[in-house]
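Write out a sequence, fold above all:
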Amino acid sequence: MVDVIIVGAGFAGAVSANLLATRHNKKVLVIEKRAHIGGNCYDEIDENGILIHRYGPHLFHTSSKEVWEYLSEFTQWQPYEHKVLAHIDGKNAPIPFNLNTLYQLFPQEYARVLEEKLLKNYQINTKIPILELKKSSDKDLQELANFIYEKIFVNYTAKQWGLKPEELESSVTARVPIFIGRDNRYFNDIFQAVPKEGYTKLFENLLDHPNIQVETNVDFKKHFSIKEDAIGFKNDFTCKVIYTGAIDELFNFRFGELPYRSVDMCFETVDKPYFQEATTINYPNDHAFTRITEFKHIHPITTQKTTILKEYPQAHIPHQTIPYYPIFTDENQMRYKQYADYVKNFQNIVLLGRLAEYKYYDMDDIVEKVLETII
């Protein structure tokens, strides 16, 4: 007998299970469709002895002391500050674009001119949207804004979302920043690290409790049923259900499909100690893949070979590919609202997580959401 059934063993499901078991003394059953726990954060040692992130790089960062202290109960941390380069005109330069990037990509004298103008017009160590630079009366700053948009952002985004550059809404330009400083870190949060023994070990610790039972290779849809105002699992309608899976799939796409972008994750072994100079290098304008990640930079180890990951964005096909990124349009948000309103008919189900809420969460965001929900 259990009190709560949790569908999915990613962060939303695992943290929910832990809180219910430890703080509320609830009997919890976690069911997971995949053969492993951890969701997209799952990591493992590969054939080269390297700890790899099977579903793409996951770098933990947060400014929430509550989230940091909670997860620290289940893992030791290895300090790690993520730095990303972009391959531009044959050179690798730091992104987000900052003052160091100027000197990597432009002649030194012109870079000095641009730096002086940026520091004259904007406050040091702040992020300025490209759209604001484009509105500058200074032609050099206008050209800089256009350069960053064209060389770093537009083609990368077109590959990521499967659109032609001209199909991208002009409003997305506002999201492209330039950092008026020399901090090459990709994130600026207070706490930045990776679990010392990996994410999978973190999830094992979260779920290691007498009140928690975990079953993998179990597809909730094959065992659930609907009865008036409740959802049942194996004809048990008394349990509360915390659902972290795809909401449209749960109800057989009755209001239509909620589209996602997926990624074809292609791992390669390279016969040398290191392949590239940074963990991740983005390729906005070259190749069909968007970026290459080398995992030895995250968890250093002495080996004669290295493992890299090339990411090829693709359309998501239900039941065939993994949904990674919700596609945010007004139409899709309206469709999700139909599902969210429909779920209100069922008194024993709670939606949590990226797929269930059709919302993109960083790792710390979903942990914070669960901490606020499972009070």
